[in-house]
TrEMBL record:
GO biological process: regulation of DNA-templated transcription
InterPro entries: Biofilm_reg_signaling (IPR052155), EAL_dom (IPR001633), EAL_sf (IPR035919), GGDEF_dom (IPR000160), Nucleotide_cyclase (IPR029787), PAS-like_dom_sf (IPR035965), PAS_fold (IPR013767), Rev_trsase/Diguanyl_cyclase (IPR043128)
Annotated protein name in UniProt: PAS/PAC sensor-containing diguanylate cyclase/phosphodiesterase
Domain EAL: 619-875
Organism: Roseburia faecis
Length: 875
């Protein structure tokens, strides 16, 4: 859970602050990790003004800086100019990530002198109470953020399950539609009638306004609409759709266009959409013998339409069906041609498919996905039993959900009768794996009530159960108890041995608690290192024995990492309904008792008893202005694009571009990337800046893809700071989701030195990024160490040879040999090569002779603004 913004509830923090100040006679203010003020300072204008005269703003901002770099301390005090004034900072972290810092100011009663004149109503505290309140604030704030984090985890799990179910429903709906469309392949009707039926099925499945099939009139430079589907028949334009000039159809050029309602459109497309009242459309060419013979078009004019990748794939599959039917008719219904076309379609539908003859029980066809789903059944000769089980009937169609014991999978199965390529009646079954959906459903139930690490009930379940126990105990006029426990110095074990051993300890403690008689089903993990045990009225007489059993667990050492370690526990105990009749009141008082136990030396039990230079200036200017630019949505930063050329294609076309960040500061003017990028990495600002570049580059590439260049890709550099973030894979996935770019058209570049320095971690992260479909490039190759020893270990798609080896091509034998060697190595491990820094025709010719396809350098173009790039290459 790394979404800090969602964790911070300003209203909640303001309320906590104001109530805490009133109760403990302190003055608080909350600041986030970027030094932004979260809450308004407590007190009247006069009181706040007085405090500002006593404590300089830079003093507490320096405290916030210290908290950002201090991994151990959570409370730091700073001396003030006035002896009677105390100032400290309290940090709150979640999973070792800083969330907020509380600035605490207190006026100490014992240190006031007659010369000090305070504003009226000024809050005053004692030195002992000040430190006690600060410690309590640290615990309370940490528990508050941990509770909100757990709620967000459970909420996201529920949302994920809902998305999964919708995805399964969508797959089933599209599966049925594709089944209907596939049956039309062997129809005896005319091609126009079959195409019309397919259009109707596809458009109804997509829930769009209409579609049509356009055929070019050879030699006339016009096109006819040969069939059409409209949701509203009275809006048909088939009669007017004859002899349409090709010039009026900007998409009719052999390219695929996928234009959503929010897409940026050139003027010809905008004019067409306005004239035809279209809000979104997909236009795909149908080719016969490498010539565009027709265009398959679907469009919407009723509502805003954003095409998803699954919509685009579905339209593409339908277009292939139409193309296959057309090829089949041309081949005069050749059996071999029909089967080959059908097989190509069935292999790319995304679900398991098999075709069976029920009379002979002969399996006529199984696609690759089906073989994957039933690999065990096939290997163990269980397939026939599964296909012809008792559930099979002679119904021509049915749908059901089944569980395969052999494969350990849940599947949605849909069966229908079709005419096979040889004319006989057969059954075609489509199967979708819904095991993940089933697992999600079970996980949701567990996540709603159980702690994911220990298996104990969680805070939510604790609050539910405690409320019921309170009610029952009150009705019986009986007594129960609540044990609130916190591990002592658990942070030292986490920091000293590592979080994995801290998790092992938490699991062992949870297991031991559940083995104590009487509390097997009333143990809860509240989060972090805190546990709760509820003692119902039926077990209350054994309270002393249970407390002894719990504390005895911690008298023995825990065996961790090959050695014995001791970990003690502090405990706070409250009675119900004596100490409180609500869940909130009891938990608060138990927490107070626990805090008291920790204050008094830890490893004890407490019962609640009512306790409540010029270069320096340049750097400073850079830092200040960079922070401002980053906070202002990175609007001062601009993405330039340097073309990447495919020299092996006729005409040496552009095949994409590398996105490069430039900063034109409103205060400093143009700043060299070599100056601001290292500083951005040091300050941690490279994360928002890098995300800004990645998202904008992906959006632009998506526009290029939609506007007739589906082969264009964009390269984005990943900083070491970005790549080492725990959530980098999630951020890349978010960019793919928000921009809807085809993942394979996004290439992320990492430097060779970064990869070599931490090979194990880099392999893991880069593999996860590639699993998203994104390509990975190794930048600056040849400038690092041990390259050849590690290169084949890394999950790569592209090697980019550094410009220092291209500079002396044709002049230096070493450079020539190095580039040739890298090219041969890349071919051996099936990786593409791109050379950087090509500036002369001689360099271009040498690289091209070596069989290297992709070239980047000033010979073809410098990094340029987006307008200049698109004017030159988006044609």
């Amino acid at each position: 859970m790394n979404d800090d913004t969602n964790l911070i509830d300003i209203s909640m923090l303001q309320q906590l602050q104001d109530q805490f100040c009133c109760a403990d006679h302190l003055y608080l203010m909350c600041v986030d990790k970027n030094k932004g003020v979260v809450t308004k300072p407590f007190g009247t204008e006069e009181q706040v003004g007085f405090l500002r005269t006593q404590v300089d703003k830079h003093a507490y901002m320096e405290l916030v800086d210290q908290m950002q770099h201090d991994r151990m301390e959570t409370v730091v005090e700073r001396e003030t100019a006035q002896d009677f004034m105390k100032l400290c900072a309290v940090s709150t972290k979640v999973e070792d990530q800083l969330q907020v810092v509380w600035i605490v100011m207190g006026i100490i009663k014992e240190r006031l002198t007659p010369e000090v004149h305070l504003p009226e109503g000024m809050l005053i505290t004692t030195e002992e109470q000040f430190y006690a309140s600060v410690e309590f604030l640290s615990l309370l704030s940490g528990q508050l953020f941990e509770s909100r984090r757990n709620q967000m985890i459970a909420q996201k799990a529920v949302e994920k399950s809902s998305v999964s179910e919708l995805a399964m429903e969508y797959q089933l709906h599209r599966s049925r539609a594709m089944t209907e469309i596939l049956q039309m392949m062997d129809s005896d009707n005319s091609f126009e009638k079959v195409a019309e039926d397919i259009l109707r099925e596809a458009c109804e499945s997509l829930e769009i306004s209409g579609g049509c099939l356009l055929r070019e009139n050879t030699g006339e430079n016009t096109a006819d609409m040969i069939c059409e589907y409209t949701k509203e028949p009275d809006k048909s334009i088939l009669a007017e759709g004859q002899h349409i000039p090709i010039g009026a159809l900007p998409f009719y050029n052999g390219k695929t266009y996928m234009i959503s309602s929010d897409s940026i459109m050139p003027e010809p497309f905008a004019h067409l959409f306005k004239t035809c009242h279209i809000s979104a459309g997909i236009f795909e060419p149908i080719e016969i013998q490498n010539r565009t013979a027709m265009y398959f078009c679907v469009y919407d004019n009723e509502k805003t339409r954003i095409w998803e990748n699954r919509d685009i794939k579905f339209v593409s599959d339908v277009r292939r069906v139409v193309q296959s039917i057309m090829l089949k008719r041309i081949a005069k219904n050749s059996l071999a041609s029909s089967y080959t076309s059908l097989e190509a379609i069935l292999e790319n539908t995304g679900c398991g498919i098999y075709v069976v003859d029920y009379h002979t029980h002969a399996i006529l066809y199984m696609n690759h996905k089906f073989k994957e789903l039933f690999s065990r059944s096939i290997a163990g000769n269980h397939l026939e039993k599964m296909l012809f089980s008792d559930r099979e009937t002679k119904r021509s169609q049915y749908y059901e959900e089944i569980y395969s014991v052999v494969e350990e999978r849940w599947l949605d199965v849909h069966k229908t009768e079709i005419d096979w390529v040889d004319g006989r009646k057969v059954a075609m079954c489509t199967l979708y794996d819904i095991t993940e959906k089933k697992i999600y459903q079970k996980e949701i139930e567990n996540q709603a009530n159980n702690d994911f690490l220990t298996g104990l009930f969680n805070r939510m379940r604790c609050e539910q159960d405690l409320g019921q126990f309170i009610r029952k105990t009150r009705e019986k006029d009986a007594t129960g108890a609540l044990l609130y426990m916190g591990l002592d110095d658990f942070k030292h074990i986490n920091d000293g041995l590592g979080h994995q051993y801290g998790d092992i300890l938490l699991k062992a403690i949870s297991h031991s608690l559940r083995r104590i008689d009487g509390i097997e089903n009333t143990c809860y993990r509240m989060g972090g290192d805190e546990f709760v045990v509820i003692i119902p009225d039926s077990v209350y007489p054994e309270l002393e024995r249970i407390v002894r059993d719990v504390t005895s667990i911690f008298k023995k050492p825990w065996f961790l990492k090959g050695e014995d370690y001791y970990c003690t526990i502090s405990m706070g105990i409250v009675y119900f309904p004596k100490d409180g009749e609500t869940v909130e009141e009891l938990v608060r008082k138990a927490d107070i008792a626990l805090l008291s136990a920790k204050r008094r030396g830890k490893n004890r039990v407490e019962y609640y008893d009512g306790m409540d230079a010029s270069s320096s200036y340049r750097r400073l200017d850079l830092e200040k202005n960079m922070r401002t630019a980053a906070m202002n949505a990175c609007t001062e930063f601009e993405v330039f694009y340097q073309p990447i050329i495919d020299v092996c294609q006729p005409g040496e076309p552009c095949c994409g571009a590398e996105a490069l960040i430039r900063w034109n500061s409103s205060a400093l003017g143009f700043v060299n990337p070599a100056d601001f990028i290292p500083l951005a990495e040091y300050l941690g600002l490279i994360n928002p800046i890098g995300e800004y570049v990645m998202k904008n580059a992906a959006l632009r590439c998506k526009y290029w893809n939609d506007m007739g260049h589906p082969e264009y890709h964009v390269n984005v550099n990943l900083s070491v700071v970005q790549l080492l973030q725990n959530d980098i894979v999630k951020k890349v996935a978010k960019v793919l989701e928000e921009t809807r770019i085809i993942p394979q058209n996004l290439t992320l570049e990492v430097t060779e030195s970064l990869a070599i320095n931490d090979m194990v971690r880099m392999k893991k992260i880069l593999s996860e990024i590639r699993n998203l479909g994104v390509r990975v490039a190794l930048d600056d190759f040849g400038t690092g160490y041990s390259s050849l020893n590690h290169i084949r270990e890394m999950p790569l798609d592209v090697i980019k040879i550094d410009r220092c080896f291209i500079e002396h091509l044709g002049e230096d034998d070493f450079s020539n040999a190095f580039v040739r060697m890298v090219s041969e190595l890349a071919n051996a491990i099936n990786v593409h090569v791109c050379v950087e820094g090509v500036e002369t025709k001689q360099q271009r010719d040498i690289v091209k002779q070596m069989g290297i396809r992709m070239i980047q350098g000033f010979f073809y173009g410098k990094p340029m603004k987006i307008e200049e790039f698109e004017k030159k290459y988006l044609i």
